[in-house]
């Protein structure tokens, strides 16, 4: 039986063996983080309409480049993506593992904007060791489809 997350205008089903991580008080209630049993995660954050995609992607790229070796990034086109959706796959080495981090930026659904008028985009990040990423990529795609269809 899948677990359900409801918040900031989204209702998402996710695997019941994934853990919804409690957010710190300073993180607010405008996002969520789900941890995979194998150590990867999925996070969703609402972004204000004042932040541009290039600025956000550049900040993420710069932060990861500073922290990890052998960093590479490439913009990708995902199945089912709207024309204004952006996705970037980033790979890097951590503790002798190859990690894949996929960052997706897409318009916040109307239900999110109704609750949070300043929210313009959603930042969705899927990250896991490469084998775990591959094993969970279909689940990631299903979660992304739920968001797109909201």
Provide the descriptors you would attach to this structure in a database record.
150 residues; 3 helices; seven-stranded antiparallel beta sheet; Protein Transport Mog1p, Chain A; single chain; alpha+beta; globular; DUF1795 domain-containing protein
Structure commentary:
This is DUF1795 domain-containing protein. It comes from Rhodopirellula sallentina SM41. This protein has 150 residues and is α+β, with helices and mostly antiparallel strands. The chain has one domain (3-148): Mog1/PsbP, alpha/beta/alpha sandwich (Protein Transport Mog1p, Chain A, 3-Layer(aba) Sandwich). Helices cover 27% and strands 43% of the residues. The chain contains 3 helices and 9 strands. The strands form 2 sheets. A 7-stranded antiparallel β-sheet has the order 3-4-5-9-8-7-6. Strands 1-2 form a two-stranded antiparallel sheet. Strand 7 and strand 8 (97-107) form a beta hairpin. The mean pLDDT is 91.
Summarize the structure.
This protein has 150 residues and is an alpha+beta fold. It has a single domain, classed as Protein Transport Mog1p, Chain A. Helix content is 27%, strand content 43%.
Helix percentage: 25-40%
* Low-confidence sequence ranges: none
As for the CATH topology, it is Protein Transport Mog1p, Chain A
Q: Please give the domain count.
A: 1
Topology as a string of helices (H) and strands (E): EEEEEHEEEHEH
What's the main sheet like?
Answer: 7 strands, antiparallel
CATH class: Alpha Beta
The total strand number stands at 9
Q: State the end-to-end CA separation.
A: 21 Å
Total helix count? 3
| CATH superfamily membership | Mog1/PsbP, alpha/beta/alpha sandwich
